[in-house]
Amino acid sequence: MAKPIKITPVLRGNDATNFLNSIKENSTKMVSKETLVNIREQATKLKSIFRTR
To answer: Model confidence over 2-17: pLDDT tens digits?
Structure first.
């Protein structure tokens, strides 16, 4: 049987302000090129594993 859909939480007051501030802070942070290369290498490894099965 299907599970009932959970109610989506709504942020109000300080919670909403804190959430928006954290979104703004994270949007300006840059990821290093080494990290991106590592992520892409790991993704290609995972893709090759799933293709063989």
So the answer is: 888 888 889 999 999 9
**Distance in angstroms (rounded) separating the CA atoms of residues 19 and 11:** 8
Structure tokens at 47: 């893709």
Spell out the domain ranges in the chain. Answer: 13-51
Which helix (H) or strand (E) covers residue 32, if one does? none
pLDDT given at position 53: 60
**3-class DSSP string for 5-44:** CCCCCCCCCHHHHHHHHHHHHHHHCCCCHHHHHHHHHHHH
